[in-house]
Amino acid sequence: MAEIHINEVRKTFGKVVAVNNIELTIHDHEFMVLLGPSGCGKTTLLRCLAGLEDVDSGRIFINKEDITEYPPRSRHISMVFQSYAVFPHLNIFENIAFGLRMQHLPNSEIKKRVESSAEMLQIENLLDRYPAQISGGQRQRVAVARAITVQAEVLLMDEPLSNLDALLRLEMRAELKRLIKELQTTVVYVTHDQVEALGLGDRIAVMKNGNLLQVDAPLIIYDHPANAFIGGFIGNPPMNFLPAVIDDRGIHVEETTLTLDLLPKGFKRSGSTQNIKIGIRAENIKILPSSEKNALKGKILVVEPLGSTNLLTVILGNERIKVNTHPDEIYLTGGEIWLQMASNKINWMDAETGNTLA
């Protein structure tokens, strides 16, 4: 059992607020991903959890036990670093066994655990080699094996796949998800890669400038971001945003007026005229052969064949948006098209703050 509660934790470096009063609960056996751009505070929060950084204020609990003042070795936590941090002078067996030897376990138990972890990570045939004799992907597996061998209550991972090439990162991501499911441990995983976050996490905590913006399941984060920053940060391509004005006549987008029945039930207007942003994903826009109700007229600027899809860049008045189409559908640069947004996939956001309204 390992439930983590981060209670109003704050950490500063001089005048820079790296972590700003974060309140977050991570459930037992949960895979929690801390996601955000470089400098958002996600690694600092992880280091505070590990005991590698002292917090300025707030408390950290594991299973209701206050560990805020505990040294790292007393927190029952293991950690995988971005740089692998394998020992070049030790063979792979001894690298994996390092934490167990610090616990003064008997050799028979060490051998059993090392071989078991190596088998899980599919590196059992490398135990006699040294780090210089294996690939970067294999060294990353060694680092993960060393972390899981000590059987800590919590596993912390700081961008462990970022140094791998794209194909190997894809392979390791699948292996890591399988492994964590087998281990049934509590994991806190830091990344700036939104594809990793969506593919791995049970929940995602999105951070920016030291603040926690949204904590939700991956598909909720993707389909219903709390604000325009999250919608623009997550997804490839990012969410499209169109400025619009709502009044009693309809929803005015560029030179087109859409009907008010597009607004979700319970949408509260702030006045007779309201400036908003419409957020819509590229795959949630339908291309029509001619004008229909609530369709927007656009002109194709660029066509990008991506294999599994064609990505169109379309001009709508003064705005450019991205639209995904089936690869068998042929569209030509300069052609005029009509676009219709899936009403249940529209995100309605405040024009000034970017916060989601409904």
Short description:
The chain has 358 residues and is an alpha+beta fold. It contains eight helices and 20 strands.
List the helices and strands and how they pair.
Layout: E1 4-13, E2 16-26, E3 31-35, H1 42-50, E4 57-62, E5 65-66, E6 77-80, H2 92-102, H3 107-120, H4 136-149, E7 154-158, H5 166-183, E8 186-191, H6 194-200, E9 203-208, E10 211-216, H7 218-223, H8 228-233, E11 240-247, E12 250-253, E13 256-258, E14 274-280, E15 285-288, E16 295-305, E17 310-316, E18 319-325, E19 336-341, E20 347-350
Helix pairs in contact: 2-3, 2-4, 3-4
Defining traits:
6-stranded mixed sheet, elongated, alpha+beta, 2 domains, OB fold (Dihydrolipoamide Acetyltransferase, E2P), Rossmann fold, 5-stranded antiparallel sheet, 8 helices, 20 strands, 358 residues
* Gap between N and C termini: 37 Å
What is the count of structural domains? 2
Structural class, please? alpha+beta
Strand order of the largest sheet: 6-7-8-3-9-10
Please write the CATH class name of the largest domain.
Alpha Beta
> Which range best describes the helical content: under 10%, 10-25%, 25-40%, 40-55%, 55-70% or over 70%?
10-25%
Could you say what the CATH architecture of the largest domain is?
Answer: 3-Layer(aba) Sandwich
Multimerization state: single chain
Shape: elongated
- Quote the beta fraction: 25-35%
The biggest beta sheet reads: 6 strands, mixed
Total helical elements: 8
Mean pLDDT: 91
List SSEs in N-to-C order: EEEHEEEHHHEHEHEEHHEEEEEEEEEE
Gyration radius from CA atoms, angstroms: 25 Å
Low-confidence runs of at least 5 consecutive residues: none
- Could you say what the CATH topology of the largest domain is called? Rossmann fold
Give me the CATH superfamily of the largest domain.
Answer: P-loop containing nucleotide triphosphate hydrolases
Please provide the count of β strands.
20
